[in-house]
């Protein structure tokens, strides 16, 4: 039993992306020293830049390793982040709207890296952006929770959270599909955005898997020219130069959400099923 359990755990271990992210700490540190903060309001950019100067050296190595390996962030990284957040409890410059968008500059930097790297296997882009988004969410949530708790302990008022958008899966008719992940599992994308039609959301999902316009046209019953027009419209609206950048930005914006698709139950061969039924029908000896 122990041997089988151990073997299953090894088989289910997340696959390394092979991007060499842990070796690029200095590279990303330079980019994150002064990234574009255009995603946040002007009066919050200076504060967020100070936060990046504190936080990036603490979490960057662990974050890159988590994206590369698919492993969780280590507890010591999260403890260090909570300590920094608690130290900001009395900071009057903190704005909740800035905090909630604080990870976007870092995600844009990573999206630009994925665009420049342009992996030959489109699954790498999907998995890398999905993992980066998950890590950014975990770091952001950890910071907000520690900051909120520290403010409450000091008697400061904590602003209420902004209304949460509906989860992507609850949007009517979200297009879904799946692709074999690098670890042998299945990755499912859910796309939803109020500014995209259902057809455009499905086209974007299929483009994320690296499908050609011809394939997308067959899957959506549109002409190849219509598919090209719709994808080009999204690229113009989002100011992205190509599909790789489009897919990366879709993850940054939360339009594309990746998750592990449920595995189908394993069907036993008929001989095994008969043996299982026989063993279950026999009384156990005490």
UniProtKB/TrEMBL annotation:
Residues 189-254 form the HTH luxR-type domain. Transmembrane segments: none annotated. GO terms for biological process: regulation of DNA-templated transcription. InterPro entries: Sig_transdc_resp-reg_C-effctor, Tscrpt_reg_LuxR_C, WH-like_DNA-bd_sf. Residues 266-286 are annotated as: Disordered. One of its GO terms (molecular function) is DNA binding. It comes from the Bacteria. Residues 273-286 have a biased composition (Polar residues). It holds the Pfam family GerE. This is HTH luxR-type domain-containing protein. It comes from Cryobacterium arcticum.
